[in-house]
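Researcher: Next sequence.
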Amino acid sequence: MPIKIQSELPAYEELISENIFVMTMDRASTQNIRPIRIAILNLMPTKIETETQLLRLLGNSPLQVDIELMQVASHVHKNTPQEHLTNFYKTFSELKDEYFDGMIITGAPVEKLPFEEVDYWEELCDIMEWSKTHVFSTLHICWGAQAGLYYHYGIPKYEFDEKLSGVYKHKVTEVFHPLMRGFDDRFLIPHSRYTGVHRSDIRKHKELIILASSTLAGAAIIASRDFRRVFILGHAEYDRNTLANEYFRDLKRGLRPEIPYNYFPADDTSALPPITWRSNATLFYTNWLNNVYQETPYKLEDIKNLSLIHISEPTRPLYISYAVFCLK
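Model: Next structure:
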């Protein structure tokens, strides 16, 4: 949440230049307050586990967040009880007339398939197109990030020789970006994927910024300059044992996986893995929620007007409030 101070205070300009959440007395006195609405498009087969992981992070905030869980209708969900889906999930057709401050599109275990061969690809494209006019900021995770980069910008994915699995060190490359507020220069995020994107392809698009990157795992956090689309290639939401469960599952399938990198103590698969990424994950999701909260129009239906305005590239380090400027 922002701090409320007088604009004449000497610290004001410096805090603004660092993108610290600062609000003037005048704006605070006129700001409208309401809960924020977040839709979660859960594409993971282990839906209950994934929704719990995400809700844990979204709930660690003073903001009131209203959640809608969404599923694709063009796929048969075999690993989640139908009763759970019926009671708690809605389809795109049920939500397409609504507006949201934010949306999360999760990963999915379909990385080795060409995007167009995924059975729900057409429906996912419809949802991503709809998000342009009905969602202020969409956060794409892992395969969902690769799908979003491909759909919105034509950026391809590349298959690895071996699965990228483990907890990797990352470097913040845009220290003044609002999503990276409070991050240390180096931080950890788990990855679990067979494919990735190339930095060179991302850099061809001036509307995209690489916010964090890893020597071993590549570009990890990417955002559009207007904050409407955010992409995280890793799984910051993972629990302590998620990578272990995936590793032992693959062993049972006879896949001979590599031991997840930098995860088990001394690579002892019988040892309890330490959680070394939870604080970073919490900070990232809190930053995303706070920025969504501050930038989304108070009247959600006004989101549809934002896509009609051309947004020029901002100069670093200042990332302006696009929602406010576009609606004037």
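Model: The radius of gyration is 20 Å. DSSP finds twelve helices and twelve strands in the chain.
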